[in-house]
Amino acid sequence: MTNPFTASPFVGKTFGVTVEHLTKRYGKTTVLADVSLEVRPGEIFCIMGPSGSGKSVLLKHVAGLELPTSGSVRIGHFDAADPATRNQVHLALVFQAGALFNSLSVYDNLALYPREHREADEAGIRDRVMHALQILSLEKAALKFPAELSGGMKKRVAIARALVMEPQLLLYDEPTSELDPVMSATLTEIIATLREQTAVTSIVVTHDSTLALNIADRIAVLMDGRIRATGPTADFKHHSDPVIANFLNPVIDLQNPRFKQLEQSHE
Ligand SMILES: Nc1ncnc2c1ncn2[C@@H]1O[C@H](COP(=O)(O)OP(=O)(O)OP(=O)(O)O)[C@@H](O)[C@H]1O
Ligand SMILES: [Mg+2]
User: Fold this and answer.
1) CB 3.0–4.6 Å: which of 140, 171, 179, 208 could bond 93 by disulfide?
2) How far is it, in rounded angstroms, from Cα 30 to Cα 143?
3) Mutate which of 22, 23, 31 to test ligand 1's pocket (most atoms within 8 Å of Cβ)?
């Protein structure tokens, strides 16, 4: 089968992302505090950080699903907060929980976007959908419904659906959570291959240091809503900041378990 993605008029056009002094508050809670970072066109940029540090909220700002309290996010020279930007940039967000339509089959979930945007005739859409399913080893699941899939399969369907949108900017939220180690490795290869084939700028939010250290060009670590460190991936293999080093490669101490320390600190 020929690769229908390389024929896309969007291929080759990609965008960088600039986050400048982004602060987000919900009521009195500050979730992002003066975050600035630059994602270069065509790179794979990983955002890491502990649970609750603000990673998903940051990604939603790039997708225009959340609006800054102050500061800005730009995609190329377009303002991510402006709804008109979605007409200029093909952006796909792979949500942490998949966000599939339960009443539609896997095939119809994937075909929905190109059908709504009348991007191709049904045969062209079928090619794109089947190619995306093939990349993610999901051909046999085409006629299944989301309720019949495992968590990892739903995740792969969500990624396949993003591919069908032929994105110029691909945003992944925890792409490898719920996947077994072999499927995680496959997915890591898929993200890297897609970037090579389509030069798509990819922002990957992840806890998975194996994924990040293998495919990222650059990494930022977010802690408590602030950027704790950012730089090329090589800097993170043995990071000079002990907090970052421990986050990426936590030491498991069975003699002195940290959950016991937590219990004591609450007594
Ligand atoms: N719509 C919202 N209203 C209020 N608080 C929110 C909202 N969305 C997120 N938060 C809060 O913002 C903080 C950061 O959430 P976020 O989902 O970005 O974390 P995360 O880093 O993605 O965590 P995880 O790794 O567990 O997915 C959390 O304390 C969360 O409760
Ligand atoms: Mg999250």
Assistant:
1) 171
2) 44
3) 31
